[in-house]
Amino acid sequence: MPEPILEAREVTVDFAHRGRNAGHVRAVDHVSFSVAAGERLGIVGESGSGKSTLCKSIAGVYKPSSGQVLYQGAALPAKRSPDLRRAIQIVFQDPYTSLNPRMRIGKVLEEAVRAGGRTGEEPAQQVQELLVTVGLPAVAATVRPSKLSGGQRQRVAIARALAVEPTIILADEVTSALDVSVQAVIVNLLARLASERNLTLVFITHNLQVVRALCNRICVMHAGRIVETAFTRTIFAAPKHPYTLALLAAAPRLHPREEASEMTARPAAPPIAAEGCAYRLRCPLARAKCAEEVPPLARTGDEEPGQRVACHAVAEGWEGAARSPANSTTGES
Q1: What is the pTM of this model?
Q2: What is the arrangement of strands in the sheet containing 200-205, beginning at the earlier edge strand?
Q3: pLDDT tens digits, 26-80
Q4: Beta bridge partners of residue 71, listed in sequence order
Q5: Backbone φ and ψ of 20, nearest 5°
Q6: Which string of DSSP letters, residue by residue, matches 142-171?
Q7: CA–CA separation, 87 vs 331, rounded Å?
Q8: Which of 163, 162, 208, 165 is nearest to 189 (CA)?
Q9: Whether 239 contacts 263, CB under 8 Å
Q10: Domain spanning 38-61+80-215: which superfamily?
């Protein structure tokens, strides 16, 4: 197999906890994964699962407390060179807070073009080409971010990332604040750009249907750890981890008569277990071993190719994965 273009090895991110209970909060806990060139990887999970923190540690916004992020086989240093910063670009959830409200869109993009070191055409011409690429009219260059809709601002944020000609784009919840119809436009735009420019895409979201439409492979995160990873079709057709099943069961259905999976979380929002498997307080399959050991992310013998699961019950031969909500939602993508 070819070497991955992006790899995380045992990445852990801790944040200092100030106040009466001084210490630290672990947001990402020994996460490892790899992405091939041109692949579209989705990282999904509920709020607080650590997916955005993981994304920002890959981008260099946060420094991992331990572990490594590798690009093209080489570990990324704490202080990245301009070339490395250009190679891995991040698009944030709220483009309004990441765009200078006092700068006109043309100047925002021109600044990015100059930072990318692109030569040839005049910067103004390159700005117009970027606007066309993301489907915005030329007049958008003359206005400030406040004059644009949320979807238009997100297009500007994507255009700014493209201005430096990256090889990897990290999209951090880029559709979560948008209307459903606008979400579809942004997802289609990212899919087209990834194909046309051979971009590697890491897409962070809590929306399973969005990641289903866009990504080749999915990592499911819970409490800072990856609990299941597989090709997208496998996650929806034959999920294994109880948390993955609960996420799918909670997803909206097209038809009210569709039955949910038998595997649902219980209760709705209990505390996360401090030791052993973090999901065990919500898991209907929890057993004594779950309180003693953190289950490793590994194959258990009968998964689809590329599927890995971190669950003691699955490792011991639980056969209930066929009762997945995938067959009662929208079918395979």
Answers
A1: 0.87
A2: 88-91, 168-172, 200-205, 40-44, 217-222, 225-231, 308-309
A3: 999 999 999 999 999 999 999 899 999 999 999 999 999 999 999 999 999 989 9
A4: 6, 74
A5: -65, -40
A6: GS-GGGS-HHHHHHHHHHHHHTT--SEEEE
A7: 36
A8: 162
A9: no
A10: P-loop containing nucleotide triphosphate hydrolases (3.40.50.300)
